[in-house]
């Protein structure tokens, strides 16, 4: 093994040592031959070792079968009076966009018709196309803008498609490759934000200029509607429509990831809407603009709390977007949080959390105010909103739990009736398992809840292999969802699964998130550490049998725990991570997250915090680090593979052993198709089984 490490290190020996502060800057050149040679060498070593393990082949077969299973629930969408779905399986690795009637969808064997085959399209055009969605023009929903990514990156190519003929529209709208956003203004006009001329991108790599593009005209003829600045995070157009045909075109100027200026677009230009900076528009309902508030808002004699939902009269906003009279729709209780919201023809559907348990509500606008109606859902489960129908008051809703397979229902918001449609067959044996919700005091005394899934007959002697995960950022809530792969490859083999609802997330509203922003972020890591220690104190597990896993911001969490508390863990999975927090603003889209992490380039306090916390900078020789598995993708143009590469290179320099795998496609995820995703899953679970179960 030492010989393998030494052989890999030869590729690093010629690194540009002139960069004394960071000798691995050359690995930030994503596609350079030198960097890719480094990647390929480590991929070869790591896959060679992990694929040779006795359980790998079975893990891969199970992951591929689960990912491409024919009995998965096809996620439905209302479109043009029919039901649409994007589907991937072993025969359609990149996927097909297909349609059926709602009546047929409700049967056990729907009669699907393929509308667009992404595998066939990629083969015909010589591209590694990955589906990034369709935006169809209301109200007919016939003409759609199809977004396609080359290899899974965030940048897309956009082409107009006729849903009825099943063909791309000759001479239709086409937006060439780039990080861009767009919205139908009407049948002949788009609002588009993109890099119109070389260099017209923010420091985060996103568009800041919105133009109106007219059908039949080249991009060069588009007329500017709004211009932000290069210091913005991004600028993005959106057109909201209600069920009666009213529209509201807006442009959102993101100053950072959480603070926005919203502008109302009209024929004379764009005027700022006087809502708080931490607020955004959910949609339109019966001439009312629905606004989600992440900070308190005082307007005249009315004060609305952070985490609530408010309404504005569309006609009044059109007259004067600077003078507003908000009305409260919903406000959270002390353990509540807004999770999701969607609009139908003339109703608002809202999913909330009550102590991290899903709740569902329907709201109807009346002259006297908004009428709230609860919609019954099973307790102790996660609730997720699917597609909502703008032509009716129907919507799809999914419920699931750690041990409860996902179930899809259609909700009628007029009556509150919920019609079961499909239930996922159990993908693993959960008959011996139970779920507990526990809590532990963090370093400041705040109680942090966490879920534990384990065998009913667990012996509390510290021997249970346990996988602990969390996210802890961007106001993202982690809830008790069903994971077939984790259940099959971990729980069914006797492992325990732990989900920690640490601060930084949105499980208890904006304040839970804001507690860990910027230089206050150590509390997020303290929360996670407290949960790990509590698992050990309760003798559910022990450091020998405790592993942790997280991706993206969760990958940063794993990196911090790896460097701050290596004594607590025997396995660490670091996926598509942020790890170099000093250079974050110079890598991929990292500058866009300064609202979350702070800006070390302009704020000395932020620089000081990350100098003592950033995982890449905190690696030390001679530490008793666990042997990690580090995963990233070359095509990740959001976080970028640079963080993972440099972290691994520094580990290597210090003589530590690790497993590193970089998929050459996939974007900010596990893979560009089902086989790639299954391979990533198999590598990860093989590593965890090897480290914690053997």
Explain what you see.
- By secondary structure, the protein is α+β, with helices and mostly antiparallel strands.
- The chain folds into three domains: 180-331, Methylamine Dehydrogenase, Chain H; 334-425; 429-692, Rossmann fold (3-Layer(aba) Sandwich), CATH 3.40.50.
- It is built from 15 helices and 39 strands.
- Strands 32-33-35-34-36-37-38-39 form an eight-stranded mixed sheet, with helices on both faces. Strands 5, 6, 7, 8 and 9 form a five-stranded antiparallel sheet that branches. Strands 1-2-3-4 form a four-stranded antiparallel sheet.
- A hairpin with a 5-residue loop joins strand 6 and strand 7.
- The longest helix is centred in the N-terminal third of the chain and has 19 residues, at 33-51.
Question: Quick recap of the structure?
Answer:
The protein folds into three domains: 180-331, Methylamine Dehydrogenase, Chain H; 334-425; 429-692, Alpha/Beta hydrolase fold, catalytic domain (Rossmann fold). Helix content is 21%, strand content 34%.
What attributes does this structure have?
694 residues; alpha+beta; Methylamine Dehydrogenase, Chain H; Rossmann fold; 3 domains; 8-stranded mixed beta sheet; 5-stranded antiparallel beta sheet; globular; disordered N terminus
């Amino acid at each position: 093994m030492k010989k393998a490490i030494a052989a890999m290190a030869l590729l690093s020996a010629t690194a540009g040592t002139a960069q004394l502060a960071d000798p691995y800057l050359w690995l930030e050149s994503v596609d350079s031959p030198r960097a890719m040679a480094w990647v390929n060498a480590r991929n070869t070593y790591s896959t060679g070792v992990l694929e040779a393990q006795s359980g790998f082949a079975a893990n891969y077969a199970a992951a591929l079968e689960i990912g491409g299973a024919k009995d998965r629930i096809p996620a439905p969408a209302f479109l043009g009076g029919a039901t649409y779905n994007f589907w991937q399986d072993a025969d359609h690795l990149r996927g097909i966009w297909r349609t059926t009637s709602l009546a047929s969808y409700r049967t056990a064997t729907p009669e699907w018709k393929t509308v667009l085959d992404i595998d066939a399209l990629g083969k015909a055009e010589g591209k590694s196309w990955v589906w990034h969605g369709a935006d169809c023009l209301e109200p007919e929903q016939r003409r759609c803008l199809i977004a396609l990514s080359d290899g899974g990156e965030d940048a897309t190519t956009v082409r107009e498609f006729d849903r009825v003929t099943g063909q791309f529209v000759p001479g239709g709208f086409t937006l060439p490759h780039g990080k861009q956003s767009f919205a139908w203004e009407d049948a002949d006009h788009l609002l588009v934000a993109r890099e119109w001329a070389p260099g017209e991108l923010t420091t985060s790599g996103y568009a800041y200029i919105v133009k109106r593009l007219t059908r039949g005209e080249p991009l060069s003829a588009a007329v500017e509607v709004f211009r932000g600045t290069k210091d913005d995070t991004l600028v993005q157009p959106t057109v909201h429509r209600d069920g009666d045909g009213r529209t509201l075109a807006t442009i959102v100027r993101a100053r950072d990831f959480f603070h926005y200026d919203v502008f109302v677009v009209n024929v004379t230009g764009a005027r700022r809407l006087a809502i708080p900076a931490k607020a955004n528009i959910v949609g339109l309902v019966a001439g009312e603009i629905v606004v989600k508030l992440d900070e308190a808002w005082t307007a005249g004699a009315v004060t609305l709390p952070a985490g609530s939902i408010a309404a504005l009269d569309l006609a009044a906003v059109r007259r004067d977007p600077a003078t507003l009279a908000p009305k409260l729709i919903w406000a959270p209780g002390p353990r509540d949080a807004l999770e999701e919201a969607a609009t139908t023809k003339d109703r608002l559907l809202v999913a909330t959390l009550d102590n991290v348990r899903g709740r569902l509500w329907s709201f109807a606008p009346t002259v006297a105010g908004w009428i709230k109606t609860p919609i019954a859902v099973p307790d102790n489960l996660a609730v997720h909103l699917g597609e909502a129908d703008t032509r009716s008051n129907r919507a799809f809703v999914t419920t699931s739990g750690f041990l409860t397979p996902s179930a899809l229902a259609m909700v009628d918001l007029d009556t509150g009736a919920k019609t079961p449609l499909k239930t996922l067959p159990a993908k693993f044996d959960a008959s011996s398992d139970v779920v507990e919700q526990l809590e532990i005091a963090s370093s400041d005394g705040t109680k942090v809840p966490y879920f534990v899934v384990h065998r009913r007959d667990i012996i509390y002697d510290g021997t249970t292999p346990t996988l602990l995960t969390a996210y802890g950022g961007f106001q993202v809530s982690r809830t008790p969802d069903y994971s077939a792969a984790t259940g099959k490859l971990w729980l069914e083999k006797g492992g325990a699964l732990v989900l920690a609802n640490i601060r930084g997330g949105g499980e208890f509203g904006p304040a839970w998130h804001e507690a860990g922003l910027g230089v206050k972020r150590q509390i997020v890591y303290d929360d996670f550490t407290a949960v790990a220690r509590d698992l050990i104190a309760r003798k559910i597990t022990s450091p020998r049998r405790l592993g942790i896993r997280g991706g993206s911001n969760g990958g940063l969490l794993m990196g911090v725990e790896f460097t701050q508390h290596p004594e607590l863990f025997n396995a660490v999975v670091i996926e598509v991570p942020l790890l170099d927090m000093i250079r974050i603003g110079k890598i991929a889209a990292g500058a866009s997250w300064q609202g979350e992490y702070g800006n070390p380039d302009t704020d000395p306090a932020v620089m000081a915090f990350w100098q003592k916390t950033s995982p890449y900078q905190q690696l030390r020789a001679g530490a008793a680090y666990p042997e990690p598995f580090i995963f990233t993708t070359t095509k990740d143009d959001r976080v970028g593979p640079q963080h993972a590469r440099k972290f691994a290179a520094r580990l290597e320099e210090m003589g530590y052993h690790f497993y590193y795998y970089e998929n050459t496609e996939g974007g900010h995820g596990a893979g560009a198709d089902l086989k790639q995703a299954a391979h990533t899953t198999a590598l990860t679970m093989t590593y965890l089984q090897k480290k914690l179960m053997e």
